[in-house]
């Protein structure tokens, strides 16, 4: 029986990987962001489609698989960031990850509270999670929409940083729901603990890898392979080490390790980047298809017109407000600011963390809140689904209409 089950799981994994590769191929062929095909594929093979994937098949390992996958994805995103490009747009970036994030958090929280009638606890959780745009959805869009370097870098860095801070903020807020006696300063301390732990662990892991690659002699025939594997291992080790101390600190650690190593002069840097990019495409496909397969349309439909109204406010009011306020005097044209307002899809971090919170809200007492769990999960997944389908699907066309695309070489 166990052999039969394991074979079924292996076949399912093989099918997901194969479908992921096919989705990437179609995306490249039709010049459409891959996340669009990945989500549609996941829905097609999930309970709402062919029923090949169910929550029982995935089991409790989903959060672990998603966590490690996100670590690799974020590591790759920060590794390829160019410090010089960030410096050019530092004003816009610093505002997007502070002022823009606050506008998104407060605006989303109030919208969910007023339109859906959610409790303040659930509204705050949704607001925190939906701050994150994320490299998992931004990168595939920018891969097929050639915009000016400063525009692309701002969107990429915003996605990476807000992925990290949104996840940590959401965990702190969730802990606040279970520890009602915390003083206000206690919430700040929980946030700082996770952020500081992740940064320290990321620096340490990056330092060890740098030493092994630059100060230790390797056989010339295996040196490129060793460099690639060390880089991949650093992402996973940094995530696991920090996450074992504080939940969600692992995301910060992976981001720190990636940016640190990417900023240093390493041997075989191009080979490392190509290898990590290929691995990222694979895990991105696997995670997006799996999470999309677990979508339950009943939870989305239960939100009704109010749910769609929340998505509309986020896309048409809150996102443009955050972008336009954050980019005042930053050297972007009005068309570029409109494009950046349009590109704000949500991705893996909100989906995975919302799933984890929903499970705990349904099973733990305190803070047992089954109705809140359904509202949380339904709202987050509805925003993800609509923003990815609309914004990823039409990004190239919108960029063309606004005239912000650069000539492709």
Summarize the structure.
The chain has 409 residues and is mainly α.
Mean pLDDT: 83
Helix content: over 70%
Shape: globular
In this structure, how is the largest beta sheet organized? none
**Total number of helices:** 18
What is the CATH topology assignment? Na+/H+ antiporter like fold
Please state roughly what percent of the residues sit in beta strands, choosing from under 5%, 5-15%, 15-25%, 25-35%, 35-45% or over 45%: under 5%
Supply Rg: 21 Å
GO cellular component, one term: plasma membrane
Subcellular location: Cell membrane
Keywords: Antiport, Cell membrane, Ion transport, Membrane, Transmembrane, Transmembrane helix, Transport
Membrane topology: Multi-pass membrane protein
Q: What does this protein look like?
A:
By secondary structure, the protein is mainly alpha-helical. The protein has a single domain (60-402), classed as Na+/H+ antiporter like fold, CATH 1.20.1530. It has helices at 2-30, 34-45, 55-58, 62-79, 83-88, 90-116, 120-129, 135-144, 149-178, 184-214, 223-243, 249-263, 269-293, 297-301, 304-326, 334-342, 348-363, 370-402. The longest helix is centred in the last third of the chain and has 33 residues, at 370-402. The chain is globular and about 60 Å long. The chain crosses the membrane at residues 6-28, 35-55, 61-81, 93-116, 122-147, 159-179, 191-213, 225-242, 275-295, 301-326, 338-359, 371-390. Keywords: Antiport, Cell membrane, Ion transport, Membrane, Transmembrane, Transmembrane helix, Transport. Pfam families: Na_H_Exchanger. It is found in: Cell membrane.
């Amino acid at each position: 029986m166990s052999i039969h089950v394991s074979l079924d799981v292996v076949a399912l994994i093989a099918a997901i990987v194969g479908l992921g590769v096919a989705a990437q191929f179609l995306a490249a062929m039709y010049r459409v962001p891959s996340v669009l095909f990945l989500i549609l594929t996941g829905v097609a093979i999930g309970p709402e489609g062919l029923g090949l994937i169910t929550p029982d098949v995935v089991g409790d390992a989903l959060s672990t698989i998603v966590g490690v996958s996100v670590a690799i994805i974020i590591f790759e995103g920060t590794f390829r960031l160019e410090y010089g490009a960030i410096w050019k747009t530092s004003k816009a970036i610093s505002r997007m990850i502070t002022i823009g994030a606050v506008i998104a958090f407060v605006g989303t929280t109030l919208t969910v509270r007023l339109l859906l009638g959610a409790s303040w606890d659930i509204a705050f959780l949704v607001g925190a999670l939906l701050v994150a745009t994320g490299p998992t959805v931004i990168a595939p869009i920018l891969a097929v929409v050639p915009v000016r370097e400063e525009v692309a870098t701002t969107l990429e860095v915003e996605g990476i940083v807000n992925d990290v801070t949104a996840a940590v903020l959401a965990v702190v807020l969730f802990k606040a729901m279970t520890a009602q006696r915390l003083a206000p300063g206690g919430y700040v301390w929980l946030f700082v603990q996770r952020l500081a732990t992740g940064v320290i662990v990321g620096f340490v892991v990056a330092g060890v890898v740098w030493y092994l690659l630059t100060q230790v002699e390797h056989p010339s025939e295996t040196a490129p392979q060793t460099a690639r594997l060390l880089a991949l291992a650093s992402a996973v080790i940094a995530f696991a080490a920090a996450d074992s101390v504080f939940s969600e600190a692992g995301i910060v650690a992976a981001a720190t390790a990636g940016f640190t190593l990417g900023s240093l002069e390493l041997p075989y840097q191009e080979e490392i980047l190509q290898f990590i990019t290929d691995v990222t495409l694979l895990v991105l496909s696997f995670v997006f298809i799996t999470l999309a397969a677990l979508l339950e349309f009943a939870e989305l439909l239960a939100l009704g017109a109010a749910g769609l109204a929340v998505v509309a406010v986020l896309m048409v009011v809150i996102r443009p407000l955050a972008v336009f306020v954050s980019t005042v005097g930053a050297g972007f044209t009005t068309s570029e600011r409109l494009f950046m307002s349009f590109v704000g899809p949500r991705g893996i971090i909100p989906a995975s963390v919302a799933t984890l919170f929903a499970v705990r809200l349904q099973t733990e007492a305190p803070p047992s809140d089954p109705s809140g769990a359904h509202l949380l999960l339904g709202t987050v997944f509805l925003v993800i689904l609509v923003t990815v389908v609309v914004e990823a699907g039409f990004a190239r066309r919108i960029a063309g209409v606004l005239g912000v695309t650069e000539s492709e070489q």
